[in-house]
């Protein structure tokens, strides 16, 4: 077996030619007979008219025909050089067509949804145009506002950036500060009595309680001096008569009853002070008794009289 187009290689002994590489050769007699049948079936008048019309059309257009042929040759050459890409494109188009063919219902739903959206936009065209116009106007106003305050915005943005960096560097400290501040205010809420507008003294009020008692003792001695009763103008008098309140250095005499009862008994033993205290209590809307006046005094002092 020899090649019909020149040089060829000889097959090795035992080589088999597959059927896919074989073909039935065309017989010249069959080709001539088919050509004769085809040409014989043509209408001579039609062929003549076709040739005459073609001659008239091409008359004077030889150069254009040559350019057309050259361009077609270039296109065919380009397509031939891109035959692999065209083959891949055809394959991918075939895959796409098959995929769409298997999803006709979903494609139909997509087209229907798109049609509905398009219909909605069309029916609300005025509103959409108004929205677009409003957004355009707002953009123009915002742009003019930004341009007008560009310098101030630059400064503010720089300051904000600096603040952000500072907060980022001290975020842990801020977290601790917030935590301790919460504890501080929680403690303050327990230490303040907003109903009576005073601090809850509790144990931390002991030094203050001592100062209050000392100031009360001094006031009682002043009243004795004003009333002309020198016997009660000394601290020893009040320490012996009201030891529960005014005995600051032991040993202290044992008193009867509570500190309020001891103070009321001591005031009752001094007629000038007793009358003055009863009159003051009546002016304040009280019953006019020394015991009630003393109890009201202790009720107003935080840490005494059972109120804290």
Describe the structure.
The N and C termini lie far apart (127 Å). It contains 14 helices and 2 strands; from the N terminus they run ααααααααββαααααα. Among the domains are: 172-198; 202-299, no CATH class. It has helices at 28-40, 44-58, 62-81, 83-101, 104-123, 125-148, 150-169, 171-191, 206-227, 235-241, 243-246, 259-268, 271-283, 290-299; strands at residues 192-193, 198-199. Strand 1 (192-193) and strand 2 form a beta hairpin. Helices cover 71% and strands 1% of the residues. It has 308 residues and is mainly α. Strands 1-2 form a two-stranded antiparallel sheet. Helix 12 packs across helix 14 (290-299).
Write the layout of secondary structure elements.
Layout: H1 28-40, H2 44-58, H3 62-81, H4 83-101, H5 104-123, H6 125-148, H7 150-169, H8 171-191, E1 192-193, E2 198-199, H9 206-227, H10 235-241, H11 243-246, H12 259-268, H13 271-283, H14 290-299
Antiparallel strand pairs: 1-2
Share of residues in helices:
over 70%
* Strand residues, percent: under 5%
What class would the helix/strand composition place it in?
A: mainly alpha
- Residue windows where pLDDT falls under 50 for at least 5 positions: none
Order of strands, widest sheet: 1-2
Q: How many individual β-strands? A: 2
The shape is: rod-shaped
Q: How do the SSEs run, as a string of H and E? A: HHHHHHHHEEHHHHHH
* Number of separate helices: 14
Distance between the termini: 127 Å
Can you give the mean pLDDT? 82
Features:
14 helices, about 70% helix, mainly alpha, about 300 residues, two-stranded antiparallel sheet
Q: Brief description of this entry?
A:
This protein is an all-alpha fold and 308 residues long. It is 71% helix and 1% strand. The protein is built from 14 helices and two strands.
